[in-house]
């Protein structure tokens, strides 16, 4: 199979580098950063599993760095519910209009980030315990199965929990890795991993690792307050991207 046109290669590799950097810095956001580039050069059927394999690879590279933030009693409700939610979201694809969903999520992200940006002392959610965490993980899994949007719900919830950057990363990264790995297996079973996918994967996975490494270096140099601001900016840009793509 011939290589894609040089212009498409430049666009897709640039998207992989940018998305890898965002993922390495925050532990989430790969899909929203990459798809703005990739959907100009490939179909959504190819782009979705490509997001999954690149994001999971980037997560695996940086997992040893954030291992200290992992707290399994806190993490497992998100993971279990998220993995259960993925096939449900996939099954709902035929019954849900994805574009209005993206528009609604985009507006929600911008409103949330604007509100949190003006709060001198952000509110904290102490109650709910593991059932509430599991419910958020389930929402993330369903959204991931429907529209590759596994990240926003747990990212917002974890901020409201008031956890430090290592604790946030210790939930976000394994959660997104598990949800996207499940999505990748689903794509394999469905027969979506064709030769075109593997050509793009050979180009994007190494580039993603470079971007993720650079993002991880910056992650080690920011404090909790700076990390919170970076996540809010990332969520705001994600909201704008979703609104533009929906319209």
Taken as a percent bin, the fraction of beta residues is under 5%
What overall form do the CA principal axes indicate? globular
Mean pLDDT level: 84
- Could you name the ranges where pLDDT drops below 50 across 5 or more consecutive residues? none
**Terminal Cα separation, in Å?**
35 Å
Give me the number of helical elements.
Answer: 10
| Biggest beta sheet attributes | none
Number of strands: 0
Fraction of helical residues:
over 70%
Radius of gyration: 17 Å
Listing every helix as H and every strand as E from the N terminus to the C terminus, the arrangement reads HHHHHHHHHH
Structural class: mainly alpha
Describe this structure in words.
There is one protein chain. The chain is mainly α and 247 residues long. The protein has 10 helices and no strands. It has helices at residues 6-26, 30-38, 44-66, 72-91, 98-118, 129-147, 152-161, 165-190, 195-219, 224-246. Helix 1 (6-26) packs parallel to helix 3, helix 5 (98-118) runs antiparallel to helix 10 (224-246) and helix 6 runs antiparallel to helix 7. 45% of the residues are buried.
Structure described in brief:
With 247 residues, the protein is mainly α. The protein has helices at residues 6-26, 30-38, 44-66, 72-91, 98-118, 129-147, 152-161, 165-190, 195-219, 224-246.
